[in-house]
UniProtKB/TrEMBL annotation, chains B, D:
InterPro entries registered for this protein in UniProt: Beta-grasp_dom_sf (IPR012675), Mopterin_synth/thiamin_S_b (IPR016155), ThiS/MoaD-like (IPR003749)
Spans through the membrane: none
SUPFAM superfamilies: MoaD/ThiS
Protein name: Molybdenum cofactor biosynthesis protein MoaD
Organism encoding this protein: hydrothermal vent metagenome
């Protein structure tokens, strides 16, 4: 049996990351893992209008809060690994914003944990997105949506 | 008390963080927010829509503004988050 | 706007595949994609007891059936791409069995489509797994589980 | 009619596929299965647990065994699937 990290891995960074490479590392030599779910959140170009997204964050709380959410997921589902990477700073269209990887011996556990993580990151992780436009119109803060709040209702029991 | 402001609340107050001595009569988050508004029109403007203001106490979300501030070292004010 | 493939991509093959590479290709130059969910199903070693898994399949039906399921998902959710790869033949512990990639501008659509695909593949795709054991005990057909049948109940509306 | 057998049903019948002329009185999947069992003990053994037998007609799942066989060219018999 391979050694399993004790609890989730959380990284908050300004640099872009390579999902493919992280995924490869996460599944190498872990013969007990049957299911791997990844979620990658990418910066959309909003129909070509977006020059860049700027993510402001509350650094010390972001780390604490994501660890709290990830630990709750890790304790609730039978996971082998749970990896969360969230970027801050300036992000160009097509670049990564966030990555969640959940590995488990059960596919539904991996799906649910990754989906739960994303729903909570959207509404509870202290990051704020500002859109910079190509056409020079003024920068705009992205507004939180009701849909994201509603997504949380599924997880009341956890 | 250390106070932090983020996103458009930061832009409206014009400061990212400050160190303030809270008046002794302020006991709760709600009392703090009411006092903050009286500090100038930039603060009043930043907090004009109470439903858009989120509060964290020592890096934990606070959803009940009647919560006491005793023992708290850091208050952060920010709009609803848009991470992920 | 990049050209989008018309409908899902389905591949049934005996060769192993490189999830990381396929993921990279799937997200390259697609600036309207905000959410990418991957599911990788790997061959577990069953606590070191498994020598290999052998997947028998009904080739012509497997292709038709997976295309049917994938097309249903593709039509139901607002997806950009939907890729399904399923292997047959002899598979060693740690190797891939199945891969689903769903990309969308909406994270829940990507999660749900991938999860739906997996639930249907488990119960409706004509593949049968046989376990070959290291200790020489006789080979054993993997039995279908009620849990997999129950997982389908979530998708009745689709 | 082309008949295909998979997994342990194939192992029990001892054949992967065959071409058979069905007796004219066989009209439905159920009638076909009943006839098949009379062809020898290997077939009877393969089908001994009806709840473990799945049927596909021309590469589509058949969940209603009263379905007629008219127009069908290929019948496949197999246990519950374990793909994915």
């Amino acid at each position: 049996m391979p050694t399993s990290p004790k609890g989730p891995i959380v990284r908050i960074q300004s640099d872009d990351f390579d999902t493919a490479q992280i995924l490869k590392r996460a599944t190498r030599d872990r013969p007990n893992v049957g299911a791997v779910v990844t979620f990658t959140g990418l910066c959309r170009d909003e129909g070509g209008k977006l020059a860049a997204l700027e993510l402001e964050h509350y650094a010390s709380m972001a780390e604490a809060e994501i660890k709290r959410i990830a630990t709750r997921a890790y304790d609730h589902w039978p996971l082998d690994q749970l990896i969360v990477i969230h970027r801050y700073g300036k992000i160009a269209p097509g670049e990564n914003i966030v990555l969640v990887i959940a590995t488990s011996s059960h596919r539904q556990a991996a799906f649910e944990a990754a989906s739960y993580l994303m729903d909570y990151l959207k509404t509870n992780a202290p990051f704020w997105k500002k859109e910079h436009h190509k056409d020079g119109t003024s920068d705009e803060w992205v507004e939180a949506t009701d849909k994201d709040d509603k997504a949380l209702e599924r997880w009341k029991e956890i | 008390m250390k106070i932090l402001y983020f996103a458009w609340i930061r832009e409206r107050t014009g400061i990212a963080q400050e160190e303030v001595d809270l008046p002794g009569e302020i006991k709760t988050v709600e009392g703090f927010l009411n006092w903050l508004k009286t500090r100038g029109e930039e603060f009043d403007y930043a907090l004009e829509n109470p439903s858009a203001v989120r509060v964290a106490l020592d890096r934990e979300h606070c959803s009940d503004f009647s919560q006491p501030l005793a023992g708290v070292n850091e208050i952060a004010l920010f709009p609803p988050m848009t991470g992920g």
